[in-house]
Design goal:
- This protein is an alpha/beta fold.
- The protein has two domains: 85 residues, Arc Repressor Mutant, subunit A, CATH 1.10.10; 207 residues, 3-Layer(aba) Sandwich (D-Maltodextrin-Binding Protein, domain 2).
- Helix content is 44%, strand content 23%.
- The radius of gyration is 30 Å and the shape is elongated.
- It starts with 6 loop residues before the first helix and ends in a 6-residue tail after the last helix.
- This is LysR family transcriptional regulator.
- Belongs to the LysR transcriptional regulatory family.
- Keywords: DNA-binding, Transcription, Transcription regulation.
């Protein structure tokens, strides 16, 4: 036998003692009086004593029942207090997950503004390339890089997907790039999560698949690493301009051929489940993030 009494039975017992009625306890617990009676009987069987004296129209607690109620009530109140405290903490917490590159290159330099505007809120930021499972993961809202189509999600576009070529100024000068077709001499840094080289070279350099396949290439499975490799002169990276803008402003990267920007099907979307009402703090975060994103060109 478990050392724990049946917990549902404890709820039924506490309500029945407090309200002095199985019927009123059933109404509070949203079950039938018969279900309350069954839970009380289950607890009595577990304890080996009668907790109530039953008559045709009423039930009265026995001396053992009153004594048991007096001894467990403080513990039940502690459980309620601890639960409400923890729930209250969660009410002021926003848990958001986003792609690592988006978090590092765009969100990280803005997130403190949210806490300045809403100092009573605790912000928990996670990063992952995997799609959040809102039914399983403790996440309130997420930024997702995809096509925006999911019947279970509310999706608001933050930034439309684009792909453009970037490299370090020194690499550009050394290689003498003047036209897109000159990238045949480059080393392509291919972010396999955003693999758009074939489309970009085909559209802007008029290369065929065999010509593209002949270009030296390094495959990289992290966007931030691919951008860093380009900063260090390892080749030309195909990246979303949003993720490269800070490095361009700081002179670490140059945007090769700025007129040649490929529009891609995916983009950054703010998403949350359609069937779940957002808590107040999460709504504040959603509205704040969309406000921050207004500066972006969709």
């Amino acid at each position: 036998m478990s050392s724990y009494p049946p917990l549902n039975s404890l709820r039924a017992f506490e309500a029945s003692i407090r309200l002095n009625s199985f019927s009123r306890a059933a109404e509070e617990l949203n079950v039938t009086p018969g279900a309350v009676g069954q839970q009380i009987r289950k607890l009595e069987d577990w304890l080996g004593v009668e907790l109530f004296v039953r008559s045709v129209r009423q039930v009265k607690p026995t001396a053992d029942g009153l004594d048991y109620a007096a001894r467990i009530s403080p513990a039940l109140l502690q459980i309620i207090d601890a639960s409400q405290h923890l729930r209250g903490q969660r009410e002021h917490t926003v848990r958001v997950v986003m792609p690592p590159s988006f978090a590092a290159k765009w969100f990280s330099k803005r997130m403190a503004r949210f806490l300045i505007d809403y100092p009573s809120t605790s912000l928990h930021v996670g990063s992952s390339v995997q799609f959040t499972d809102f039914d399983r993961d403790p996440v309130d809202i997420a930024v997702r890089y995809f096509d925006g189509n999911d019947d279970k999600l509310e999706s608001v576009l933050i930034y439309r997907g684009q792909a453009a070529a970037f490299c370090s100024p020194a690499y550009r000068d050394r290689m003498g790039f003047e036209h897109p077709a000159d990238l045949a001499r480059a080393t392509l840094l291919n972010d396999i999560l955003h693999d758009w080289w074939e489309e970009w070279l085909g559209q802007f350099a008029r290369m065929n698949p065999s010509e593209i396949a002949a270009i030296k290439r390094i495959e990289i499975d992290q966007t931030s690493m691919a951008i860093e490799a380009a900063i260090h002169g390892q080749g030309v990276v195909m990246a979303n301009p949003l993720l490269a803008e800070e490095d361009v402003m700081e002179g670490k990267l140059v945007h090769l051929f700025p007129e040649q920007v490929l529009v891609v099907p995916s983009g950054y979307y703010l998403v949350h489940p359609k069937n779940r009402e957002l808590r107040g703090q999460v709504k504040l975060f959603r509205d704040w993030l969309l406000g921050e994103a207004r500066e972006l060109t969709l």
